[in-house]
Amino acid sequence: GQSVNVIGAGLAGSEAAWQIAKRGIPVTLYEMRPKKQTPAHHTDKFAELVCTNSLRSNSLTNAVGILKEEMRRLDSLVIAAADSAAVPAGGALAVDRHDFSGIVTRKLKELPNVTVINDEAVTIPQVPTIIATGPLTSAVLSEEIKRLTGEDYFYFYDAAAPIIDGETINRDKVYLKSRYDKGDAAYLNCPMNKEEFEAFFRELTTAETAPLKDFEQEKYFSGCMPVEIMARQGAKTLLFGPLKPVGLEDPKTGKRPYAVVQLRQDNSAGTLFNMVGFQTHLKWGEQKRVFHMIPGLEDAEIVRYGVMHRNTFLNAPSILKPTYQTKVDDQLFFAGQMTGVEGYVESAASGLIAGINAARLAVAEQPMNFPEETVIGSMAHYITTASSKNFQPMNANFGLLPPLNERIKDKKIRGERYAARALERLNDFVIKL
Ligand code: FAD
């Protein structure tokens, strides 16, 4: 049959190549390392882990744990390699990174229908092709992709504010209102009095920030300055900036609070909220500590922490279908971090879907949308239906799944219900593949 090109043998590209090749279809896999390294990779191995050796939770009460289990059932190479290379890590799946990427590399190179081309792709090859060149895509190829998608739909920098699970916000303290009641009441508002603001301000300006990597020492783009840097210019910068209270009188008191933190609905289901103007470079533990001081967010679960780093990614809601095909060309797919999924496992998961669908196309079968109730399917759904205006990459989390029929407070039981539903739907779906 016709050969499928996969560009980039990272987490997503390796998984995609495996899914295609194991279905008997030839794959041409392009990888530029070690001839040309990215600023974060150091080896010549496929699926190199550029930072931590942890693939996060392995528990079925956690979204990324369920995602792994779904991938096991879909015969994922990345998760199988991680399971074989696992090191003790409590409830997490952590790996010996050399063993892990060694296994992925060997398994792919062993397959007779995988041809590895050890060079940088400088143009997008003839279709069918999956582009999975990651957050540090080489410069020349980035330009090619930008030409394809258009300037406005391609980004080099990720400046994301934290995203919160809506069910964990204290609705007794926050109120729904838009500034001056313009348009629909689209924001949840967290009101602060003077004392609350001053305490918050003190912690925000002294909290610890994450260290920048060399290649991240770029100037902050105007309009997305980290909230803690803005705060260091003085309290007024916040009070006339992201925390300004004008037009946001609290309906319970009729009074204008001293300061207001606004939360904007982030997905169409209304289960996720992002903190307006709170792009941040604080360490994750510090985000949790300081943002929990905001009235209404005392017990809020941050499902995606604020980050500011170099990241090549597309405006997926405008560019992609939930099959990871591009809207402009059914035979051209994207996978991995560049599609707006965030994380090792999430990247591999998107490669898994893209791989299966590219393999289906190669034998003239219809590509498949994975069920939304599965974590793997929920990510594909999210990145293609999120608001294209403020689109930022996303981790696997329960806020992406359609809500359960009943509201369950106990986190463990809630997780178990999501898991049971996800795995049941997946089992029904796998039969159709
Ligand atoms: P990659 O795994 O980066 O794979 C892309 C591959 O394409 C690479 O092998 C690259 O060499 C190759 N390539 C690039 N351009 C070309 C070209 N033109 N031709 C041929 N080959 C090319 N996620 C986590 O879950 N935990 C973390 O701790 C974590 N830390 C991160 C730290 C940094 C510095 C960065 C940048 C990201 C981090 N991520 C982390 C996010 C993300 O999970 C990883 O970047 C992950 O590797 C993404 O998988 P991918 O397959 O999309 O890209």
What is the alpha-carbon Rg in Å? Answer: 22 Å
Heterogens:
flavin-adenine dinucleotide
Biggest sheet, spatial arrangement of strands: 10-11-12-13-9-14
Compressed to H and E, one letter per element, the order equals: EHEEHHEEHEEHEEEEHHHEEHEEHEHHH
User: Count the helices. How many?
Assistant: 13
Uncertain ranges = none
Q: How many β-strand stretches?
A: 16
Overall residue-averaged pLDDT value: 94
- Give the proportion of residues in helices: 25-40%
Q: Tell me about the biggest sheet?
A: 6 strands, antiparallel
Describe the structure.
With 433 residues, this protein is an alpha/beta fold. It is 33% helix and 16% strand. The chain is built from 13 helices and 16 strands. It has helices at 11-21, 63-73, 77-84, 97-110, 139-149, 194-206, 227-232, 235-239, 284-291, 316-319, 344-362, 375-385, 411-432; strands spanning 4-7, 27-30, 54-57, 86-87, 92-95, 114-117, 129-131, 154-160, 163-165, 175-176, 187-192, 259-265, 272-275, 302-304, 307-314, 332-334. It has a six-stranded antiparallel beta sheet. It has a five-stranded parallel beta sheet with strand order 6-2-1-7-16, covered by helices on one side. Helix 2 (63-73) runs parallel beside helix 13 (411-432) and helix 3 (77-84) packs across helix 4. Bound molecules: flavin-adenine dinucleotide. Flavin-adenine dinucleotide binds next to helix 1 and helix 11.
